[in-house]
Amino acid sequence: MTDPRTHSPFEDAQGIAYGGMMAAFGIVILTHLGLVTGQTAGLAVLISYMTGWAFGPVFFVINLPFYWLGWRRFGMAFTVKTFAAVALVSVLSALLPRHVGFATLHPGVGAVLFGMASGSALLALFRHGASLGGVGIVALWVQDHSRLRAGWVQLGFDAVLFAVALAVLDPVTVGWSFLGALVANLVIALNHRRDRYIAA
């Protein structure tokens, strides 16, 4: 059984670096295709499309209010690691497009690649006691203080987010976006063991 508390600082650092890089790469694919996703990253992407603001700063600022809940729910180590992961994704998502480009990328293939990259990123972060903050933390807080399960809270948030996306983007783009989010969630569902890593 793997406990994130047994990892060395170096192991945590490389896990968070990997997770941050893969999450940022997924965002590069997503935004190149004009797609959206769920959770806090999806909200940041949607805001960036609607306002023209860069994803990185929006994602970083959106997550700021959630760290207090993360501290209360998971403690200091989780909160510090999550802050580091979010900061890394915010910076790398701005830097990577200068070094990565796509001459040809079909939306369906891009959606699947995004889902795999983001899913593996979150698996790495979960294994090392971190996350990408936001909605997941709120969902767990709601679960602690009500009869609503965290999964339903996250699903409800994503349903609202995709409904808003339908008002801003065309249905085909939202459909490809849903495919990407589905793949990411399947990667996590099939590979993440909450009893072995963190309850997030």
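(the above was protein one; protein two follows)
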Amino acid sequence: MSLSWIILGQLDSIESMSTSKKVITRDEWERKLKDVKIRKEDMNKLVMNFLVTEGYVEAAEKFRIESGTEPDIDLATMTDRMAVKKAVQSGNVKDAIEKVNDLNPMILDTNPRLYFHLQQQRLIELIRSGKVEEALEFAQEELAPRGEENQSFLEELERTVALLAFEDVKNCPYGELLDVSQRLKTASEVNAAILTSQSHEKDPKLPRLLKMLVWAQNQLDEKAAYPRINDLSTAMIEDPAI
């Protein structure tokens, strides 16, 4: 991202100046932006990386055809990965586990934390459905033995089982476990594990670049007044506050 490098360059050039803030005009800022050359191929790779990592199969295929950018992973495996993710997000955890094992049984065999979280999600779904006896039996047979071997697993299990002690589980101290965000968290963890097993980065590069931009702007704020991006969703550059 060219803007990040411009900001970092400005930081270096201001280091030796006085403590008073330097004012960088919009014209000067835009002139520096134009001086930075970014290849279209690199931008296309960045977009493809995001689509592949996040699992937008159809969009990735269309972008491949339109831009000529080849993904660094077989798009067919994306379909399988998204089927796993969708199963977790819809609460069909048992189905998700079977799909993961079909993809690569080593994923769960070598990742006990992930397997525990999937089984924990199964327990949450049983509690959500009001299957109290089945939930207790499942917790005792599948999760308790793992909790005895790992203190953090035991603590998570205790929080989950505690849901059964409340009539209004959604408003109890651990009600967030029943929130959709818990499913999304587990699905994201599975997605990352599958990507890692395929020797692919588990996180897209674009969000990291945006974090770098925010960090660089915060650093430059202490030394200069300059056109900055306040809303990342629009990427509009606003005039410096003087």
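Reviewer note on protein two: The chain has a mean pLDDT of 88.
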